[in-house]
UniProtKB/TrEMBL annotation:
<protein>
    <recommendedName>
        <fullName>Adenine DNA glycosylase</fullName>
        <ecNumber>3.2.2.31</ecNumber>
    </recommendedName>
</protein>
<dbReference type="Pfam" id="PF00633">
    <property type="entry name" value="HHH"/>
</dbReference>
<dbReference type="InterPro" id="IPR044298">
    <property type="entry name" value="MIG/MutY"/>
</dbReference>
<keyword id="KW-0408">Iron</keyword>
<dbReference type="GO" id="GO:0000701">
    <property type="term" value="F:purine-specific mismatch base pair DNA N-glycosylase activity"/>
</dbReference>
<comment type="similarity">
    <text>Belongs to the Nth/MutY family.</text>
</comment>
<dbReference type="InterPro" id="IPR029119">
    <property type="entry name" value="MutY_C"/>
</dbReference>
<dbReference type="InterPro" id="IPR015797">
    <property type="entry name" value="NUDIX_hydrolase-like_dom_sf"/>
</dbReference>
<dbReference type="GO" id="GO:0006298">
    <property type="term" value="P:mismatch repair"/>
</dbReference>
<dbReference type="GO" id="GO:0032357">
    <property type="term" value="F:oxidized purine DNA binding"/>
</dbReference>
<comment type="function">
    <text>Adenine glycosylase active on G-A mispairs. MutY also corrects error-prone DNA synthesis past GO lesions which are due to the oxidatively damaged form of guanine: 7,8-dihydro-8-oxoguanine (8-oxo-dGTP).</text>
</comment>
<keyword id="KW-0479">Metal-binding</keyword>
<dbReference type="InterPro" id="IPR023170">
    <property type="entry name" value="HhH_base_excis_C"/>
</dbReference>
<dbReference type="GO" id="GO:0034039">
    <property type="term" value="F:8-oxo-7,8-dihydroguanine DNA N-glycosylase activity"/>
</dbReference>
<dbReference type="InterPro" id="IPR011257">
    <property type="entry name" value="DNA_glycosylase"/>
</dbReference>
<dbReference type="InterPro" id="IPR000445">
    <property type="entry name" value="HhH_motif"/>
</dbReference>
<keyword id="KW-0234">DNA repair</keyword>
Amino acid sequence: MRDPADAADLLQWYDRHARDLPWRVGPSARAKGIAPDPYRIWLSEIMLQQTTVAAVKDYFRLFTERWPTVDALAAAPDAEVMAAWAGLGYYARARNLLKCARVVAEETGGVFPADHDVLLTLPGVGPYTAAAISAIAFDVPRVVVDGNVERVMARLHDEHTPLPAAKPILTAYAAALTPNARPGDYAQAVMDLGATICTPKRPACGLCPWRTSCAAWANGTAAELPKKAPKKRKPVRQGVAYLARRVDGAWLLETRPDKGLLGGMLGWPGTDWLDVEGPAPDEDPPIRAEWKTVGGEARHTFTHFHLRLVVKTALVPMDRKPHRGDFIALPDFSPSDLPTVMRKAFDLAQGR
DNA sequence: GACACGTGGCG
DNA sequence: TCGCCAAGTGT
């Protein structure tokens, strides 16, 4: 019989191997009584949803330097926050981030609620994030289940039920292990273990503090867990983007509607993006001009489809009025304000 | 439960 | 080149 896995063993490992992350109060600082700033924990958790630590770091530093408190963020104009988020993806997070900041600023005086059930009501805060904020920011024992925890639990118990059906089972395993002591450190410890040792591919079982408790290690099945439902293949869609530059250098852009793909983000006016199997999308240039097609196409893959974007450019006079979008002068616009697919279209038009 | 929702890195 | 994967949430 294997030893049962023990939270204390993992905490001991975490004391020696905790990663140094910009939003983290490490175990030694925590032991001295230094508490995390709930604003920074919340912000980092929203940014980390479905996103790698490496991708988040620079954005986190940028956001916290520019908006050090939830009140500062709540007071920021929508366009500035969306532009600052550009490139991170899942833009509904940025819209909900602002909504949430304004709720906290206006309804609770800029103080984050410590109550898990209140946290759950905040925009963009779901079961994982509410539990993570409770545990990490407030050191309340909550069961924190993210992709890392699912993977670690599936392996510890050699659970072969595919996700997402396995979720309740894995959550129960996680609940049984969650300690009352040091819940904040523990939550981060499991996630660190999943990110650095119990990785999706080629797990480093030889270094794992829970190895002797791990059923998948005993059975040699760790690398194939957790099982997942098969993915559907992505269809290919096509569209046209119109990049109009006014003679003074201003670019014609529009803010996309809040709902749907790239909602709330700046983008080039363009056609709908339709499946290549069907008819080509109707062309409707946003301004009367001599449009020239740029050679090649901007290719981009979203979560559920591939896009091939044809790019057309035009130079237009000062007095010409667009029927879509607005001209934005250069000091007020940087290509880095654009979501990646739109930046790719820009780069293609610039000959890059 | 299923699907929409981004992006960059890695093998 | 291509599929997989990352500290999920909202509908």
